Amino acid sequence: MARPAPAGLQLEPLMSFRPRVDPFTLMLLATIALASLLPVQGKAAAVMDIVTNGAIAALFFLHGARLSRAAIVAGARHWRLHLTILACTFGLFPLLGLLGRPLSGWLLTPELYVGILFLCALPSTVQSSIAFTSMAGGNVSAAVCSASLSSLVGVALTPLLMALLVGGDGAMANPLTAIARIMLLLLLPFVAGHLLRPWIGSWVERHRPVLRWTDQGTILLVVYTAFSASVIEGLWRQTPVWTVVAVTAVCAVLLAVVMPLVTWIARWLGFDRADEIAIVFCGSKKSLATGLPMAKLMFSSGGLGAIVLPVMIFHQLQLLVCAVVAQRYARRAPAPAPGQGAG
């Protein structure tokens, strides 16, 4: 039987995750087109960089304020589940990314392959992992705790993993410098927001639909500044159309391999159905909302557009596939035992 969501947790309407191209995807494409035609540069780029950093800090402050203490307490006991998800997110994914190394310089440009590795090193997404777990009838409280834990662990682990995976390639900053910048702009605002939740939490919950635009607006700002800098450096001259098709295919294959593997791991370890669902949706997804701000802090601006492209492609693919898988889980939910109500 699926565990109920912890008190105070409000999920956004799940029908927004239908298997279709959503409006935000169209906005992403429009932002890339705008950056390609009218890239920001010079003093305007410096101002835009400051504005984007401020928006990133505000985004993670609000994420911290949204995280319910009840959700943390309710999910914290499931340590085997959390370790399994972390192992899939930061172990299985990077190993699969390394298997694609022969593609670099042949099917993918070096920057796009660094982007694939960066995708594999990212933490799990929070909002949609929880939503899909709820849609499928899984352990929502554990998904809340595990996805949030993944984001916090990723603050330090993603830069370290990238240092191991690519070394000095990809114009990556020093790992310790990257971690310090990420903690300053991501972790500290997140912690501050969570500590202030008793005073601002109700306001955040009341304005959740409006604050969703804060998430999306920040991502669009990062995309515009990243692609502007990359276009000026010659992104589209160095990234032919066929390589974009190739990276889309690589992302599709990666997702097609990961989801059955994560499902098999959950069953092999003996988790029940509700926990399996949480593991599948938290362990097979990667965060666009966390990934783009981290990329901005970890890599030089010149190659950033190509590096974040796989993350953006994988984001849309995972929404489409996970919506179908969640609906399949929901249709196959076991019937209530005799004498039990449906609720």
The amount of helix comes to over 70%
CATH topology, by name, is Na+/H+ antiporter like fold
Rg result: 20 Å
Ends apart, CA distance between termini: 10 Å
Number of domains: 1
| Mean pLDDT rating | 83
Structural class: mainly alpha
Topology pattern, helix = H, strand = E? HHHHHHHHHHHHHHH
Main sheet: strands, sense, barrel: none
The CATH architecture term is: Up-down Bundle
Please give the count of helices: 15
Beta content? under 5%
Per DSSP E runs of 2 or more residues, the count of β-strands stands at 0
Poorly predicted regions are 1-19, 339-343
Overall morphology: globular
Instruction: Just give the CATH class.
Output: Mainly Alpha
Describe what you observe in this structure.
The structure is a single chain. This protein is an all-alpha fold. The chain has a single domain, classed as Up-down Bundle (Na+/H+ antiporter like fold), CATH 1.20.1530. Helices cover 74% and strands 0% of the residues. The protein contains 15 helices and no strands. Helix 4 runs parallel beside helix 7 and helix 7 runs parallel beside helix 13. Keywords: Membrane, Transmembrane, Transmembrane helix. This is Bile acid:sodium symporter. It comes from Luteimonas chenhongjianii.
